[in-house]
From TrEMBL:
<keyword id="KW-0249">Electron transport</keyword>
<dbReference type="InterPro" id="IPR051269">
    <property type="entry name" value="Fe-S_cluster_ET"/>
</dbReference>
<keyword id="KW-0411">Iron-sulfur</keyword>
<keyword id="KW-0813">Transport</keyword>
<dbReference type="GO" id="GO:0005506">
    <property type="term" value="F:iron ion binding"/>
</dbReference>
<feature type="domain" description="4Fe-4S ferredoxin-type">
    <location>
        <begin position="14"/>
        <end position="42"/>
    </location>
</feature>
<dbReference type="GO" id="GO:0051536">
    <property type="term" value="F:iron-sulfur cluster binding"/>
</dbReference>
<keyword id="KW-0479">Metal-binding</keyword>
<dbReference type="GO" id="GO:0009055">
    <property type="term" value="F:electron transfer activity"/>
</dbReference>
<dbReference type="InterPro" id="IPR001080">
    <property type="entry name" value="3Fe4S_ferredoxin"/>
</dbReference>
<dbReference type="InterPro" id="IPR017896">
    <property type="entry name" value="4Fe4S_Fe-S-bd"/>
</dbReference>
<comment type="function">
    <text>Ferredoxins are iron-sulfur proteins that transfer electrons in a wide variety of metabolic reactions.</text>
</comment>
<keyword id="KW-0408">Iron</keyword>
<dbReference type="Pfam" id="PF13459">
    <property type="entry name" value="Fer4_15"/>
</dbReference>
<protein>
    <recommendedName>
        <fullName>Ferredoxin</fullName>
    </recommendedName>
</protein>
Length: 98
């Protein structure tokens, strides 16, 4: 049986969201990808978008403030979340993490 690496997504991250009901404000996503995530005044993770305000709502990749951020960094940020509050989707709308 082959070992598979979990650090590389199989599909391109096209959309992402933060589940506010799951977020506990650990800020691990901010530590891993500060150009994509920040904490709001309620200590919840939000996505940094080109057009303010930052939001936890479903965001298409093209609307992120950091257009150069790669899939691996977004996946690592999502994997760092202790409550799996960051959801990643591919181009077809299928959930690729968690």
């Amino acid at each position: 049986m082959e070992n598979q690496t979990v650090s590389q997504p199989k599909k391109h991250v096209a959309r992402l969201e933060v589940r506010r009901d799951l977020c506990i404000g650990a800020a691990s996503c901010v530590a891993v990808a500060p150009s994509a995530f920040e904490l709001d005044p309620e200590n919840k993770a939000v996505l940094r978008r080109k057009v303010p305000p930052p939001s936890s709502d479903m965001t298409v990749r093209e609307d992120l403030e950091d257009q150069a951020i790669d899939d691996e960094t977004l996946l690592l940020a999502a994997q760092s979340c202790p409550t799996q509050a960051i959801i990643l989707y591919d181009e077809d709308g299928k959930q690729i993490y968690p």
